[in-house]
Amino acid sequence: MRSVIPDYLTEALDDVRPDTSGERAGYIPELATADPERLGAVFATLEGAVYGAGDIDTEFTIQSISKPFTYALALADRGFAPVLAKVGVEPSGEAFNEISLEPSTGRPLNPMINAGAITTHSLAGVEGLAPDQRVERVVDGLSAFAGRRLSIDEAVCASEMEHAHRNLAIAYMLRSHGILTEDPRAVVDGYVRQCSVLVTARDLAMMAVTLANRGVNPLSGVQVVPAPVVRQVLSVMATCGMYDAAGDWATQVGIPAKSGVAGGLIGALPGQIGIATFSPRLDPHGNSVRGVSLFERFSSDMGLHVM
Ligand code: DON
To answer: Which of these is catalytic: 8, 51, 71, 191?
Structure first.
C-alpha cells in the first residue's frame, strides 16, 4: 500500500501536468509571482497515514481554505445561534467576492464567500477580544487543525491589504447593517492575516482529515472542535465551498470541499479520508484548474462521490 498510493498519485499528477490553462490570482500581486508549475497531492487517512506525491512540502498561503476552519472556531467559541444570526448557510450562486447579503437583514448568505468569512473572522474567539488576540486565536486554531505551528506570510498579507478595496467595501456594508460591530478596517486586516497563513499540501490534508475524523486530528489526537460543529462545517462546504461552481463540483466530484486563490484545494470525506492538492493556476471561479481535474479523477477512480 505504501508504494501503491504514491505511485497512483504520481501518475495522476503526470496526467494533469500538461494542462497549463488558467491564471494565477492577479488581484493579490504577491500571488502572481508564485511558480505556476508547482503541483502536489496528498491523501491523509483517519489512522494518521499520509501519502503524497509532487510538491507536498512547498509553503503557500491558505487563503479561502481558512474559511471553513475559522467558521468552525466561531461556532465552537460562540455557539451556533449567535453565529447563525449573523451568517446564513445558503449557496449564493455568485462569485466569492460578491456582496451577497440578504436584502432585508444584510446577513451574508454563507461563510464561504468573502462577506460571510469576514463576518465569521469577527466571531472567532470569545467576545471582546482585541483584533490582534483574535488573529492569534485563529492562527492557534488553524495550527491545531494542521497539528503543527503555522505562521503568517507578511509579504502576501501586505500585498493583499494594499488592494483590499473590495473586501473593505464589503466590510463597510456589513458594518452599516450592524453585522459587524467593530472598525471594518481592523476586521478586514485580521481576515487578510487569516488568509495569509502559510501551509503545505501536507498540512491541508491533515486539516481536511481532521474534519473527516469528526474534529480529532489523527496524529496529535487533539479534538480541535466538537463533532456537531464539524457536521455543520462539512454541510456548508458541500453546498457552498466551490462558490458559483458548487453545482458542477457536487455532480462531478461529490466531496465536501474548499478552494483557495493561492492554488490549494481540500476535500474531506467523513469517516474516510482527507485530500489536498496544490497547483496555482485558477479557473474563472477562483478554483485551481489542475486541482479540480485531480479531484474529479480521485472521486471517479475510488468511488468517493457521496451522493
Ligand atoms: O479575500 C480574498 O479575496 C482572498 N484573501 C481569499 C479569496 C479566495 O481564496 C477565494 N477562493 N478561491
So the answer is: 191
Mean pLDDT of the 113-128 span: 98
37 is in an annotated binding site: no
Residue type, 138: V
Do residues 275 and 250 lie in contact, with contact meaning Cβ atoms separated by under 8 Å?
no
Q: At what angle do helices 131-146 and 184-195 cross, to 10 degrees?
A: 20
Q: Cell for 154?
A: 507578511
Q: Tell me which CATH code domain 4-59+199-301 carries.
A: 3.40.710.10
Domain spanning 64-195 has what CATH number? 3.40.710.10
Domain ranges, ordered by start, for the chain:
4-59+199-301, 64-195
Q: How far is the CA of 66 from the centre of ligand 1 (A)?
A: 9
CA dist., res. 296 & res. 292, Å (int): 6
Q: What ipTM was estimated for this complex?
A: 0.99
Residue type, 224: V
243 marked among binding-site residues: yes
Tell me the three state secondary structure of residue 276: strand
Task: Write out pLDDT tens, residues 41-62.
Answer: 999 999 999 999 999 999 999 9
DSSP designation for 214: T
Give CA torsion, residues 116, 22, 166, 97, to 10 deg. -20
Q: Do domains 4-59+199-301 and 64-195 have the same CATH topology?
A: yes
Q: Which atom of ligand 1 is nearest to the CA of 97?
A: 3
288 is known as an active-site residue = no
pLDDT at res. 296: 98
